[in-house]
Amino acid sequence: MIHSLKGDKVLWGILALLAIFSFLPVFSASSNLAHVVGKGTPWGYLFKHFIILIIGFILMYSAHKIHYTYFKGISILMLPVVIILLIYTASQGTEIEGANASRWIRLPIIGLSFQTSTLASLVTMIYTSYYFSKYKKTEVTFKRSLLKFWLPIFSVVLLIFPSNLSTAALLFLMVLIVSFVAGYPLKYLFTICGTGLAGVVLFFLTIKAFPEVFPNRVDTWLNRIENFSNGKSSDGNYQVERAKTAIVNGKIFGVGAGKSRMKNFLPQSSSDFIYAIIVEEFGLFGGVGLIIIYLLLLFRIVVISYNASSIFGTLLVIGLGFPIIVQAFINIGVTVQVLPVTGQNLPMISSGGTSAWMTCIAMGIILSVSSKKEQLQVDIGSEMLKNNNPISILSESI
Description:
By secondary structure, this protein is mainly alpha-helical.
């Protein structure tokens, strides 16, 4: 099985390390989850997390076996599909305390919840990489890119935006980064940013003027930003305060695995605020160590993108890898109160389903890019060895 793993071995090792380590904080935090939900046991939630990771690594393995160029066509076919899924998700009208909470759809037969925005983000980044690699050797005009690229991109972002601001903002930022790396003219990027900003302002003003138009989360977003700035009490700030207490309790070496006290007071201790549990149980060393692992993951992503054998491969690695790292540091930033509460989980660590699977698929595609570069190097080496083989030279002369 190990010999069948292709691609960057260091990346495989980092992902396996993160997955194995995740069992400790997830199991510890699940005791609170079982108490809050009122059903299940920590062992049951741990087994669920195990199954999710097993499925995730199967998806990762399968994706890394597919030549990454095939994902060009997949993204073209899937982009209209995810737009339809996002429209269906938004049309459900799910509300929590009057706010738009239409993020999931329930899959028939199996009954599992599926967060459509995570699939949409993955497909959008692949499509972005494909589009700019296709026109890399030709001049990209604003008129041409407006209909073929920005229209579908804005459609996806705008459909995610009302229910999940942080995911929509992160996706749009990553699209801009890939566009910049691909050499898209800055004057066009500024125009796109200005248009996006104007659209957001118009949306906020419309909702404030006509709050009953449709369920939204504008008040939630504004309250989180205001509470973050002023340090006022709210549900989000309650969790941040408990997270800060957990970090203080951890000190240098932590209280020990499974011995967190703040997990009993953090409703999102197994997902959004799992980093606080990690620091409390493993101390400053554990918290800093996890940050170093994510930085090492970033380093491998940069190396793979630099060594990719095609422009599409380079953009694909950046477009799929960078969001995972940014999401990780957003989660950590929220926990230590550097950023307002966003609801982004910790990749490969937090409990969850759809997000973990999409992360694994993204990493599988990145491994596919690295494996094809690896194969290219092997082919070149074999050709050089053949050309410099004395026996081959002698046989050719005879």
